[in-house]
Amino acid sequence: MIYDACVIGSGAAGGVMAKELCEGGAKVMLIEAGESVPPSRFRTHCWPYEMRFRGFRGEKQEPFYPPDLTNTIRYETQDSISVDRIRVLGGRTVHWNAVVLRYSRADFRERSLNGIEEDWPVSYDELAPYYDRVEKMIGVCGNDDGLEVLPAGPWYLPPIALRCSEEILKQAVAPLGIPVIAVRKALLTRAYDNRPPCHYCGHCMDGCDVSAIFSTPSSMLPKAVKTGNLTLRSNAVAREILVDTDGRARGVSIVDRSTRKEEEVRARLIVVCCATVETARLLLNSKSTRYPMGLANSSDAVGRYLHGHLGDTVYIYLKDLEGKAPDNQDGALDHAFIPRYKTKTPAGAFDFQVNYAGYMFPYQAKFLPGYGAEFKKRVRQMEPGFLMMGGFGKVAARPENRIIVDSNRPDTYGSPTPVVQFRFGELDKAVWNEMRSTVADMCGRLHGEVVKPMGERPSGFASHEVGTVRMGKDPKTSVLNSFCQAHDVKNLFVTDGSSFTTSSEKNPTLTIMALSLRAADYIKEQRRRGDL
Amino acid sequence: MTQPVDLSRIDRRKLLQLAAAGLLAGNFRILDAQACDNTHHGDAAESKPYTAQFFTAEEIAVLDRVMEAILPADDHSPGAHAAQVPLFADLIVANSPADVKADWRSGLQLLAAELKTSSLDDWLARTAENERNPRTVLDLFFAKLKQMTVEGYYTSRIGIHQDLRYQGNTYQTEFKGCTHAEHQTQARGVLGVARGGGSAAAMPDQAS
User: Fold this and answer.
1) Which of A64, A137, B112, B154 suits a disulfide with B207, CB 3.0-4.6 Å?
2) Which of A62, A183, A194 to mutate to test the interface with B (most CBs of B within 10 A)?
3) With an 8 Å Cβ cutoff, are A54 and B151 in contact?
């Protein structure tokens, strides 16, 4: 059987691509390396004492992080960075806070406006209709705050109410000109699209058991299945993309993780959606006489321009709330958001997610000095005053930061493993310092105790890594055109975060989905015209 | 085709009844009543009797004394002893690499020797003075003991429910947010009034 399309990876990009192509009448094979895990197996409402190691010692949800697939990465860097390696049907959409932010007009034009990096080959205005459609597809709560830095679409569900600590924050930092607005999340505050609303348990990151948060398996795959055009192959690792003598992609060599048998999936076009590290790795591992540098890599840009978010979190305990009776603060994790407000300087490219982690564990106990009854009482008293601010900052796309593959260290399936070579640059450090000084200003206006300040040196990636298979106008310096189609290989597309030309301080997922949807439209049109 | 159901106005029990009766449309999936129930999916380590795998009875006894002194029982709640934090420590260390095990063993040996000449209260008072700038191996060991005690205690039933009286991890039909007038910002006008998602009447009920 020759499929019309083979989509590799079932996360944010692969999910929307598979659904759209199936609905457009294409026979689609969707390949996922991880297992399909039903919501009944998520540990959404699990208490720590019900888990063997109570979540410590790197204890993760089984089987989200299978060692044969996730322990294969190596970091060659002196900076503190890491990427999330989840491998499960739905990818990171089953394990996320669902913050969805549109890039602004300026975010696509760094070269023109600031003289750094490159402009994207696609503009905000070209992408806006796709942002609109994606927001409608997945259901987004929030507001149109009328901010140039955070454009809005026509459809939002009601925002989530702010907690006391967030109202206090909003009041305290307003004189600094720092806005605190309702966050935009792919989370339902009322029933929508046959999905129930959020029940405010505060365990978004463990997988949402009722699918109130958007995920590929809950929202995209059922629609793809309904068309009768989808074949799903989970537990299958893509090893290599194979090519014909004419240079076109002809299929994917996959290994079944249970049987360890290798086979070829034939398809008329291939869409790679494995996320930034694994997508670059797959292309670099797809070498042939025609493509000795790896597939679609005549520019030598595959693997290069690796970037992501720098970030750190500050914990502060507000005196105004100290000693209050315990209250259910969980909600949907982050409700408030501080968008970028310093737009005149590139170093101002940062924003803050507020209270993005859970309320169950008293973080102050890890940082407060002392012991004994007084210490225990202090921990208890401070608990209601908890406020957490997570800063996310832009990292510049630079060619020397990259993924390479190491053939001397193959994985279980014989594939060369990824190596990350990365250092923060001067601009990144400037963003970090500006963010630290803003945090200090904000904390200075809050009546509270900072138990954990921001670190002195940049750290990050925060699962927001992008850029290793970038789009661009010039085939000599980029891999993909503005429709995420490889310059070198007409029937090869890459629609995940690796396609980003540059990144902003905003979380990438919504832009990934908009790009994937736009590419899907383009593919459907090309197929209709018989060009693909 | 299923009947329209206003899911925003029903509770969890009703939701599960509807799911069980197949009254929820297409891709809305509660595959299992447990899925959104407040029940256990983990390995209920604390509820099973646990025997120490790594520490000796003597070592457990020392841990028990020190950990209870770090987070003691008081008139508000039981302490580290009742929360069985030494057994949590045993589980963690027993499943750690050899160098971590060796550190704990030698730390406990040093501490046992120290406690032959000094009372526990005196040692804790002395070592806590150096908490920000640890000077000795035992000072460093105190940091390790405290970290383990904090992690074990505040992830136990006693720590979460009796001490902190944590109210979350439940099913709620709405989240009210802050309702206190004194916390509400007076400065809404400063940054403009948001066009709320709630007012976006055009939001359809179905995605496309």
Assistant:
1) A137
2) A194
3) yes
